[in-house]
Amino acid sequence: MVQVKYSPSKFIVSKLKSICPRKGTEYFALIGFIIILSIILMAIFAPFIAPYNPIKKVGGILEEPNGRFILGTDGLGRDIFSRIIFGARTAISVTFLAVIISLSFGVLLGLLSGYIGGKFDSIFSLVMDAIYSFPGLILAIVLAAMLGPGILNTAIAIAVIYTPTYFRMVRGLVLSLKESLFVEAARAIGAKDRTIVFKYIFPNVISSVPIVLSLNAADAVLTLAALSFLGLGLPAPTPDWGFDLKAGHAYLASKIWWPSTFPGLMIVILTLGFSLLGEGINEILTPELRR
Amino acid sequence: MEALLRIKNLKVYYYLREGVVKAVDGVNFSMRKGETVGLVGESGSGKSTLGLSILKLVPSPGKIVDGQILFDSKDITKLDNKKMRMVRGKRVSMVFQDPMTSLNPLMRIEDHLTETIKAHQKVTQEEAKEKAALLLGEVGIPPERAKDYPHQFSGGMRQRVGIALAIALNPDLLIADEFTSSLDVIVQFQILNLMKKLKASYNMGMIFISHDISLVSEIADKIALMYAGQIVEFAPADAFFEEHLHPYSEALLNSVPNVQLSDQKLSYIPGMPPDLVNPPRGCRFYPRCPYAKDLCREKEPPLIEVKPDYMVKCFRYDEKRS
Amino acid sequence: MRLNQIIWLNASDMMKREVELKVVNLKKYFPVQKSFLERLFSKKIEYVQAVNEISFQVKKGEVFSLVGESGCGKTTTGRLIVRLIDPTGGKIFFKGKDVTSLKGESLREFRRYAQIIFQNPYASLNPKMRIGEAMGDPLEIHGIATGEKKKKIVFEMLEKVGLEPAKKFYGVYPFELSGGQRQRIAIGRAMILNPELVVADEPISMIDVSLRAKILELMLTLKDEKNLTYIFITHDLAVAKYISDWIGIMYLGEIVEIGRKEQIFSTPLHPYTKALLSAIPVPNPKRKREDIQLKGEVPSSINPPSGCKFHPRCNFATEKCRSSKPSLQLLEKDHQVACHLF
Questions:
Q1: Would you indicate the residue range of the signal peptide (chain A) (predicted)?
Q2: What is the ipTM of this complex?
């Protein structure tokens, strides 16, 4: 009898298979997760993985990918591979920070606004709707320009545009949950408002958040790239995929493709990772769609 | 008399991710033209699935896996969709618990009827309208309401419209699935009286599906009691209520409050119905039966004809063994 | 419970049964939601007259059933009694104390003594809360017990409602349980504070027929043990006959007849009561019954009929019925009816 080797990935896939409704979708979450995890690891261990210092000139200008520089060098002679690896740090930190800020404010305000209602709700809904109806990227540009460069400032600029998304979703859920029977039952046993909001309503709202979270993260990566592309957000010479994409853009006409392609590819991969994870989580958390 | 409907060893299974739910597992049943059968069972007994399968309306992932449904001696399990559409509405029709969902909110009631009539019969619009007016009159809807929309009707009125649509083409068999469950007691009483009247004037066969055995006793000629996907007792109504031979029948009748009894001792049936994905190999009622024997656990009891027209699925009535 | 209340209760136990709940001219009108255009064209606000000045009282340890069809106001009355909604008018007295306009802390205090069991066991439990947690929540909310002590009380209650072994059920989520089991959790949660008054809103209508008696038996056992007073809301007269001491028949927001169970069933007075009784299905095809055919259906409670609300459907209606509203009168001991025929 051949002993079948038990591998962790097979285990995870089979677990996912049992909870994912449609055939094949169990791979979405897994692949997305692997991609993001890889990039996070890349960011954490950057100093150990990157062969060169990303902000120093280490080679010739615009060298083609070769033995010494596997992805070539950019216009200032810096190793693109190392810049890609270190670029993961800015991508991950700004994205995660932005998502955490927008989630915290959006969810909390949505909870309170939906439950308290009245003037409180009217004011916040108005503010959130105003932000929401503004073209996201333009608002981010304005804020980034106002706040100035830096990881935190960029994260805040991006966070502002996504806060209304969480707010509206959570507020909508709270409004309907407020009328549900188990909330009425909670009131009947004497629960205080605080208890109802955090013990009864919040746990039923939170399950809708992960999907929005990952899709927002995907969007945030692109927004950050756009900001960096426009020269806002992070100061040079910080390795940043969006910035490098722009910087390399100018050389494309001369058929020098490597300075912009690789950063662009990383942006796509990270966005894809978040999207797949979001879709996968959505499938897992909506068993009602199972047939 | 030739049977209107004869079901032989019908099996309808639902193919779910969790497993295969054997909702209807070997049902044998027959009824004559003009007869009203009360199909009674609790949730999960398979009664709705049985009703739907007669019209081949079992929703996916359900499938008719085995057995025959002989309607007028023709096996309708073999019919394709096109031929089945000729059967539905014209020879067999169905009414449901909430006709609101089966009525088009943008169509007047009158139009619902004329559309149905014209789809199956070659008549002019005028003739169809006349027929529609007649039908509405028969179900007790005043003629001036014919031009109203579904949302303007109350629950009881909508049920009446549902009946009108169902009898429009003079079907041989009407299946009513929990038809009065959403109605109040008094309206329910009115609708039931209406159905009794129509049953007589149209000589229609009826299968009245309900979880409420008291309700069914008001209208049924015969009672078919289902448990865990099988029919456990099938008898004329009078005999059923007097004798209730199957242990489940007895237990069920003891758990129903009877307003004519004073000081009734109400009981309940301990335990729960079996898992339909892995039904037990013996009698399905075994774990909850006060008369259970070892034999019941080992083998599935056959459907025994205790007297003419009276069938019970229980070893207690199997003379060969006792 | 506080010391003075304990003293008060002991004194009342020594006397004959005290009035536990008294409702006087209780009224609840809901404003009808109007569309923007409707509001533009007419300033008049219309009301759904859900509960229209009803009065009754219930003694300690009794089961009072409110019976009626949908829209009669019985569910609203139940919610008014436990103050989940505020009355538009009238008064509610619990053990002699006016609880009509309680708010805040005193309302929370009241909730310890008056609880409610809802109709739908699939919706009345927080889907994200384990049932042990859900059952113990009232104890935490009212500061009665926390931690291990709370867990012990919950375990006892789980066993009492028949969910054993308690350890197994403590950590389970509602979706893992059947309807009957969930309803027993709901009952346990309502009882865990040792209330004195329990409103049961159609507690068995969504449970399978063969399991209903189990729930009823549990409720009756608890009633005897804890000397509870029940307000039992139902549309099913057969169930009402089984469980009640007193029955109040409601129609379109009003009580048309009140009496002891025996009186309602053997000598019903109001035409509506008689029609209801004649319409109940009985598992016996041979029975003889009075066949009362009522005209029409229950009218809307936004523009209810004038005078006696039942008159358009009543086979005995007179001119007086159309013009003046009858009030509840005592016809024989314990038996009241609101009808001009008497």
A1: none
A2: 0.86
